[in-house]
Give the backbone structure.
Amino acid sequence: MKLKTLLVSMMASVTLVAGAAQAAELSIVSGDTGNGLAFLRSQLDRFEAETGHTVTVVPMPSSTTDQFGQYRLWLAAGNTDIDVYQTDVIWAPQLADQFLDLTEAAADVVDQHFPSIIESQTVDGKLVALPAFTDAPALYYRKDLLEKYGKEVPTTWSELEATAKEIMDAERAAGNSEMWGFVFQGNAYEGLTCDALEWVVSNGGGQIVEPDGTISINNEQAAAAIDRAAGWVGTIAPEGVLGYMEEESRGVWQLGNAVFHRNWPYAYSLGNGDDSAVKGLFDVAPLPMGDGEGARSAATLGGWNVAVSKYSQDPEAAIELAKFLASADVQKERALSQSNLPTIEALYDDADIAAAQPIIPNWKEIFQNAVPRPSAPTKTDYNEVSSLFWSAVHDTLSGNGSAAENLEILEADLQDLKGDAW
Ligand code: GLC
């Protein structure tokens, strides 16, 4: 071999080796809601092209409760197969020990995000995840039907009940036998904790466990709110609502078979999709309020983040991926195509986003006033607290005991769980 050829080929292999050392094979887990997985893939394709890394998606069910159960097992076993986790806003205190501290890596971008969201992902000074989007639900309503029957958008649960029933009955009488008044998430899982927290807070019934750790759920206003919701099942809502999560309720709504629907902002872009029967026929409003003392419209604070497993074999590349998915650029894409609420304040003034998904600027104030679930005060017990709460609510909705009876048992169970822990 001539010297020049030899040199060139040596240089080529050095480049190859250097390239190989840098290019990582990463994997990320993701729940499957709406077309979220397809969106994620489209962004990962960009990341792969920009960095040379490859990323495999491990799809999970859409239920946050199912995801949490699986991730907790994997992390407890020190699973090295998953580098990046997408995490629900409530999980930070429970999984903090298993994720890398992103404080230093995110120092250059952390100020772009709403401080309260960064705080929700900070546990004992450790930034356990970077925010990808925030969440606060809406009351979806059919503009066309309210107009047809001369009705206002309800601002109280009593108005919602009356309007839902009147329109449902009239539509059924006119031959639309599939029509329901209101669909929401009534399955026994984390989503029911969100819905029921809204019923309770909106009726002045407190936040289950208060920020100082006081167990407050056993009170008359909370019981009245849950009994009221129990009255919806089989009247304005189908019996099947007891098994609905977000996607099932969205299914009924998007077929055009509900007057009102409680869901998160992701249902906004999907509802306006070409395959949706309600495209262009609906709008959103804040959720209704109760009528007790202290009643107000209440939205539960949700949201998703990206965390890096401390068992990742390639932490640097994994952190690069987490930062990419939380970046302003990807958050803008996510807002435009998924109508997810950004966690980066500047994007609420973005004209493209406002034009494509008007819910987003309108929801800034709603998510800023949203009610957090008691995951901070109950620390590592949150999942257990939530599961006791959603079970008590599900029992009541199913006709197994009154809310007062079930909340009394819940209070005792929560006291036992609490002990001296929180
Ligand atoms: C949404 C919220 C999340 C919540 C879940 C409940 O995904 O963003 O915080 O736990 O719904 O189903």
In short: Residues 1-8, 10-20 have pLDDT under 50 and may be disordered.
